[in-house]
Design brief:
The protein is 22% helix and 25% strand. With 171 residues, the protein is of the alpha/beta class. Strands 1-5-2-4-3-6 form a six-stranded mixed barrel. Strand 3 and strand 4 form a beta hairpin. The radius of gyration is 30 Å and the shape is elongated.
């Protein structure tokens, strides 16, 4: 793979270089290019003073007065083991009645209301996602949440299949 990339870069570099590189006849071409650059730059209007700033209309927004949106951590729900479910359940109905899609940011929890948004954080790598509860579960061992495959991929849980996470209720 690396050899192919190097060959591609060398090909691109070779095709980008002028074919007359190193020849003395090229000096006339350089002089013509410099003259063209000067003519191009001088074609723009020069201002001795800057034109007046535009006047703000009544619908204009002052960007200096806008407060940045900061997402709060939410109400802590504790920590525990999370697992994920994916392809075997993709397309099936969840407990909420909607169709499960493994590529969406959803999760199953035993008690949280459907539609709740939960921030799931993997403390071992610091990655976190916000998932929407749309199913009931997990019903295996001491696990606290089942996340979709998309969420598990973002959290780095796919390789092991499960991992310790921290939960916080966003809304």
């Amino acid at each position: 793979m690396a050899k192919r990339a190097i060959r591609t870069l060398l090909f691109i570099a070779a095709t980008a270089l002028p074919t007359t590189a190193g020849h003395s006849a090229d000096r006339d071409g350089v002089a013509a290019a410099v003259a063209a650059d000067v003519a191009f730059a001088s074609s723009f209007a020069q201002f001795e003073t800057l034109p007046p700033a535009p006047v703000a209309t009544s619908g204009a927004v002052d960007i200096d007065s806008i407060e940045p949106v900061t997402e709060t951590a939410g109400t802590p729900l504790g920590s525990g083991t999370a697992s994920f479910y994916g392809r075997a359940f993709d397309g099936r109905r969840t407990a909420s009645g909607e169709v499960f899609r493994m590529n969406e940011m959803t999760a199953a929890h035993r008690t949280l209301p459907f539609g709740s948004r939960v921030r799931v954080t993997n403390p071992s790598n610091g990655k976190s996602v916000v998932v929407r509860i749309n199913d009931r579960g997990p019903f295996h061992g001491g696990r606290v949440i089942d996340v979709s495959r998309a969420a598990a991929t973002e959290l780095g849980l796919v390789a092991r299949g499960h991992g310790t996470v921290e939960l916080a209720l966003v809304d």
